[in-house]
Amino acid sequence: MSFVFEPKPQASVAVVGTQDRFPIRRIYCVGRNYVEHAKEMGFTGREAPFFFLKPSDAAVPVEAGQTGSVEYPSLTHDLQHEIELVVAIGTGGRRIKAADTQKHIFGYGVGLDMTRRDLQGEMKKQGRPWCIGKAFEQSAPIGPITPAAQAGDVANAEIFLQVNGNDRQRSNVSKLIWNIGEIIEHLSAAWDLQPGDLIYSGTPEGVAAVVAGDTLTGGVAGLTPLSIKIAAAS
Ligand code: MN
User: Fold this and answer.
1) pLDDT, tens only, 93-147
2) Does the structural domain 12-231 have CATH classification 3.90.850.10?
3) How many Å lie between the centroid of ligand 1 and the Cα of residue 207?
4) What does the angle CA 66 – CA 68 – CA 69 come to, to the nearest 5 degrees?
5) Distance in angstroms (rounded) separating the CA atoms of residues 229 and 216
6) Which protein residues have their CB within 5 A of the ion that is ligand 1?
7) What's the CA-to-centroid distance between 25 and ligand 1, angstroms?
8) Coil, strand, or helix at residue 190?
């Protein structure tokens, strides 16, 4: 048997402290999961968590100490950053209870949920899927994964994003509306989680537009920071 064309190599991301890499299966994302971000998007109150996906080949893995490159995408005039704690699943499962989630988590990383906000807004208005606003090329930059045992207290870690050295987002993971255990409980009730799944857990307030030439540096205390530069559209 041979393929009719060469299949793409498996997308993967570095793992801190080893040469081995974490192979990416699916990229799940949680919407509106910090109160102050929900407010800036025009929502209040505790909604049930909801999810969207990005294709695994939207991942832009960035090595430790490097600055990744993300091309300014097509169709938009409002590309926005969302800094997020990313949970990396090492052991799959379905109907996982929040209290049992630790053994399913391989580790944690820092990710950017890049968003074509104008297109997302248009889709929201029309009641259509968010795909064009969220699931486009290079929309999921991600830094190295730190194994859970070495990641420290991520549930209470500071999370931040700077653009060209200036603070844009700064909050704490403790402010998640739905915490990591609850996210995994809800997610695994709807989908079968498998090793290699990444979960972008939501962004705090301060989301804003970037332009070509901007350098974005974000982090979660205890994890390897993530830097990308926005390249001009080609
Ligand atoms: Mn997000």
Assistant:
1) 999 999 999 999 999 999 999 999 999 999 999 999 999 999 999 999 999 999 9
2) yes
3) 10
4) 150
5) 6
6) 82, 113, 203
7) 18
8) helix
